[in-house]
Structures are given as C-alpha cells and as structure tokens.
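Look over this record before class:
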Amino acid sequence: SLFGIFCLLTSFFIGSFTLVINNDKLNSNHYLKNLKSAENDYSAEIIIKEKLKNTINNDRYVAKIIELNNKKSYGKIILNIRKDSLVPTLEMGSHLKVTGSFYKNRKPNNPDQFDYGKYLENQQIYAQVYADASSIKIGSQVDKTISYYASKLRNKIVHNLEKNNFNKTELSVVVALILGQQQDISQEVIKDYQYAGAIHVLSVSGLHVGCILLFITFLLKPIPNNKKGSIIKLIIVIASLWMFGILAGLAPSVVRSVTMFSFVAIGMFLRRSVNIYHTLVVSALLILLFQPAFLFDIGFQLSYIALFFIVWLQPLLASIWTPKYKVVNYFWEIITVSFAAQIGTLPLSIYYFHQFPGLFFVTNIVILPMLSLILGIGVVVMLLAAVNVVWYPMMKLLEYSIWFLNKIIAWVASFEDFIFKDIPLNSYMLWSSYLLIFSLIIWSKKPTFKKLTLSLSALILVQIISIQAKYSSQNKEEFIVFNKKKSSIITERKGDKVTLYSNDSILKTTDDNLVLKSYLVANYCKIEKKKSISNLYYFKDKKILLMDSSAVYLPHEKPDILIITNSPKVNLERIFKQWKPNQVVVDAANFKSYIKVWKATCRKEKIPFHDTTEKGFYKL
C-alpha cells in the first residue's frame, strides 16, 4: 500500500539522517583532522571508557580523546599499554595524559584478510595509540558516569568471589554468562564453545534476558494482578532489566535483548497481545535510532536473524512431529528452536567465520536445560556478592555447574570431524542463499506452483553463482608477496593450484597459517606444491629476482622486479649502476632501518618502491 511505502521510505531517510549526524568524523574537533598520515608521537588527554580483551603484549582499552597536543579534540581511540609497564588496571572514567605513537586504521596487510580497520570504524574508532609506563600519567579526576558505577560493581562482585577461591576458569565463564564481560576467558575455552556451536552462550542475549525476566516475574508473584499492581510490576521489571543491561556493559546484544523484552514486558503486564514481529522491528528501529553503528555489528545481525527465524520457522519444524510425552516434547522443542536459529544464521555465520559446527543440536539439547539452572543460581550468587555476602555452598554449586558445562562443551568440541571448516562464501552467495532459504520456507508453509517456481529459481541462482565463482577462480593467475613479520611468504597461483615459496617453519605449518588460509578459502584454491625460497622467478613474461640474507644476485641480467627479504647487506646504488628494475618490493622480514635506506635510494633513482609493512601485500 501507499502507506506502507511511505513508512518504508520515511524509516530509510530517518535512518540515513541518524547515521550521518552520529558520524563522529563530522565533528570539527575530531582528532583525525590533526593526525598526519605517518605514525607520530602525540600527547593526548583521554578518558577510559571500556576494558577490552588483552593481547599477548598489551593491555587494551577504548578511550575518548578530549585533548590532542594541547588542542581540544574529540573521538574514540584504542589505547594499548605494554604489559611490562608498571601501570595498574585502569578504572572506567579515569583521566590520563598519554604520549605515544598514533596509528590510523589501515586496510588489511594481506589478501582476503579480516578487515580489522573497517570493524573498528563501524564502532567509530579510527586510530590506536601505543604507550608504556613512562609515557602515561594517571590524573586524579574520574568521570563517575553510570558505566563507572557499573564497572565498580562488577569488579566488586568478581573480587568477592575470587576472595572465596572461585576457580579462575569457571569464574571467567560466569562473568561472561551473567555480566557480559568476556575479556578474561582463555582462548582454549572460546575455541571449545565455537567448535561445539555454543559461542552464543558466552554473550548475554535474548536467552539470558528472557530467563531473568521470568525470574523477576516469579519473585513479583505476591503483588496483586490488578491495574495498580500490574503497573508496579512493569516498572520494577523494566528497571531491573535495564539495571542488568547497564551492569552487563550495554553491549549491542545486551541492548537489543533488554529493549525487546521491555516491549514483551509491557504486553505481559498491561494484558495486551504482543505481535512478536512488531516487537522485533520496533526494538531494532529504536536501538538503531540512537546507535546506528550497531547495524554493522556482527552480533547484532546474528541475534536478530536468529530470533526472527525462531519465531517464523520453529512452529513449522515443531509441526513435523507431535510427541506424546511432555519430557520428549520439551527436548523436541529445544531441537526445533536450535535448527530454526541455525538455519537462519547459517549463511551469515559461514560468510563471516567460514566454518559450521555440525553437532550444534547435541550441544543445545544438553546445555539449554542446564543454562536455566545456572543463570538462576548465578544471578542469586552475583546479587549476594554485590552486597559482600558469599554463601559458600551456593557459590560452589555454581562453580561445579560451570565446570561440568565446560567439560560437556569440550567433549562435543573434541569431535573435530563434525566441524566443517574453510567454507568459501562470497557476498553474492550470501544473498542468494537467503533467497533460497526464504523461498523454501514460504513454499513449505503453504505450497503453490508459483512458490515452488520461486524456490527452484533461487536454487538455480545459487548454483550459477557458485559455478561462476569457481570458474572465475580457475582462470586466475597471480604472484603475491605477503606481509608477515619476520617471515617471507610468496605464492604463485595458476587457477585453483598454488605453489608456496617460504622458509621451513612456514612450510611445515601451512594448515595453521591464518594469513594463507584466508587467501586460499576466499579464492577456492589449495596449495599444491611447497618449495624453499629461490632467487629467480618467471611469471607472465616478468623476470623476478629475489635477494635474501645471502645477498646473491645476477649482475648481467636485468630483472623486471626486485624483491628484497631477510635484510641482505646490499648497496642498491651500486646495483642500480649495473641495472635498474621496474619495481622494488621489500617485505616485513627486513629491518626497518634497512627499508628506510632502500626507500630513499629508490626515490632518488625514481624507481617505484613497495614496502609491504606500509602498503600491504604486493600482487602481480
């Protein structure tokens, strides 16, 4: 209808306008306007906003810049503090004066690599600063916002549980489950949850918020169900949900779940029927109105798609079979919910992560009944710990429950044959896959010839796009110098077959090399041959000379391209007197001081110079 089209267009324009006015870069004082292209040391005054997961070398925080080189400034940045620095864990809201190297977000250094710079930009973060203890001065001023008090309360809860010897591994999972903080979970535990198809459990989502809503509703049963009582209940429930959301850090998944269940609570306590589709749409629009950048958050996308498919597809799957017994029906409901969510998120999950856990339904059958119990006990333990009370028997029950949960997850994850990895899926295949899924479900709900035709057409489209992608891959030829610190990686590709040239340590571990894996998966190809680095290559009528630490070169034959790796002690000026290549390429296995000298020489001789540490991989 015209009204529907009008609403759609209005929503689109409001969304576009909101996205523009919320773009931090448009602020006249944004720090990007004062950062030069090269990495430089700057002094800045910043406010700590969020604690991130640490890396091997650095403690990491999201911070807000308020001053840069004594000029008023604005914008979010990531602060990296070296771990050997004598800097305590920083409180949220702390004011710091930092002097360090500022690095703008860059494009990926290697082909088909995850674009971390783009991921940060979607969160309005455009640069990172690296500093150590000597360049940080912690001020006395602290911004005591809601986030500050929530962080203090979380730290208090964790401290009280640690004092009572709550096992560190289990505590990190509890903090993720209930408080939404994943920073301290080990990579091994995260890997197990990913392989078991249970990674969603570690993020506060609709499942968690729904359980909390039921728990609060149960506690409020003594309040009468008259008009006044219902309003009191509604106020308490919504306030409790948002207090939980603030405590959990207001991550996109938390905001989405709390917003949606706030609408559900309004329907429950005001005794009005709630259209769940309207609830999903309104909650999404409301969130995006204030935080439009959430639209690009992977968790936000997966959460809404999973919820939509649970509501839309689960009744269809459940109707396939009607168990006679309540216990069997309970587990059948879990299976159908799991399959509905997995079908909905499958294309998007493969597009982002290129893997699929085949035993996801086994995991959900086992852990979902446990999760309700764990959340109930966990909320009580956390509330008591918040007021400095730790009831030891209940704390131990929670600890052993998490220990048992982790053991089940690890057991399921150990069946690696059921984990389908390295699945290629481009954006065209993503959209065509969703077209196929939607058309098949629409046809299954009410079969007609037109719907069947649409489904078959979608299936043919998926096949055409898949065949085209493989055909395109088989007709490509390219020579690539990768950017890998302290390593030389060169590939020569002909169709779907790749020859890898590298040192022994890389050649032995190609299956675990993420730099190579991303490239191979995205391009439907595999490594056919592995060879040690050689000094001379020929590719598409181009002669390519490689100079390594041995400094071997052929003085009488002019190469088209000169590759320099492993910091050879060579004088390029002397070499250029004998011959001049059309291009000089240096990789990340060279000393920075050497690269600087070679770059100056090439500039003087007017020879194109490609440094992979600055420009990323080199492709011929």
Q: What stands out?
A: The longest strand covers residues 40-51. Residues 28-143 form a domain with the OB fold (Dihydrolipoamide Acetyltransferase, E2P) fold (CATH 2.40.50). The chain has a mean pLDDT of 83. The first helix runs from residue 2 to 21.
